[in-house]
Amino acid sequence: MTTFGELGAALVIKNQKIRSSFNMSFWQIIIFIVLFSLTLLPALIALTSKKAKGIHKLAWGAISLFFSWLGFLIYYFFAIRGMSKQST
User: Fold this and answer.
1) Quick check: 59 and 75 in contact, CB under 8 A?
2) Residue 23, pLDDT above cutoff 70
3) Is there a contact between 56 and 84 (Cβ–Cβ < 8 Å)?
4) 0.90 surpassed by pTM
5) What is the number of structural domains in the chain?
C-alpha cells in the first residue's frame, strides 16, 4: 500500500523530468520572442495600414501572414502602391 507522501514524491519526480525537457535559457526565450514578433509584424502592419481598405487590406494581411516579409513587400509594390498612383 502506498501513502500520499510516496505518491507526492512520485509526482514531483515526474514533474521534474517534464520540466527538464523544456529547459530554455533566458537568451533562447528572447530570441524566440524576437523571431515570433518579426514573423507577425508584417501582417500587423498590413492590417493597421491606412493605405489599403476592404478586401485589399484583408488580402495584404493574409499574404503577409503566410509569406511574411516577402509577401508583404510584393503585395505592397504591386497592389497598394499601384492603387495610390491611380488615385492621384
Assistant:
1) yes
2) yes
3) no
4) no
5) 1
